[in-house]
């Protein structure tokens, strides 16, 4: 994936998750260079779960299954397309789940979802119809080259 300030988006997301309260962090990808990187714990994301037309719910369910077998109760999914998500936002979302304030937390910016899902493992595997919690994130999610240029420029302006 493209870099922002010299750091590839996937690597940036991985580092943010490692800074958070998450016990185990893995990258689900089909990018060969990442799969071979010894510094990042990766799992090969199957082709059937790649592409813009794939349901996020299916990806979340696929990611959550092995963690449920290991006894985890919360799953955090951070798409690398939002480099502005912070570890504090992730920790706050985890806390909302832990305190039973909701079962699913989703990040938003300017009225749009933007890359972070935190939920109970049961909701992740069983499916969900609606989000029960929301946090505001200052970041814009990258979907197009224009989005990338806007986000890249915002980092350079700081």
Concise summary:
By secondary structure, the chain is α/β, with parallel strands linked by helices.
Summary tags:
two-stranded antiparallel sheet; 37% helix; Spore Coat Polysaccharide Biosynthesis Protein SpsA, Chain A; globular; 6 helices; alpha/beta; four-stranded mixed beta sheet; 8 strands; 158 residues
How would you describe this protein?
About 35% of the residues lie in helices and about 20% in strands. With about 160 residues, it is α/β, with parallel strands linked by helices. The chain has one domain (about 5-155): Alpha-Beta Complex (Spore Coat Polysaccharide Biosynthesis Protein SpsA, Chain A), CATH 3.90.550.10. The strands form three sheets. It has a four-stranded mixed beta sheet, with helices on both faces. The mean pLDDT is about 80.
What secondary-structure arrangement, pairings included, does this model have?
Elements: E1 3-4, E2 7-8, H1 9-19, E3 27-29, H2 32-35, E4 42-44, H3 56-69, E5 74-78, H4 87-98, E6 104-109, E7 112-120, H5 121-126, E8 133-136, H6 145-156
Parallel strand pairs: 3-4, 6-8
Antiparallel strand pairs: 1-2, 5-7, 6-7
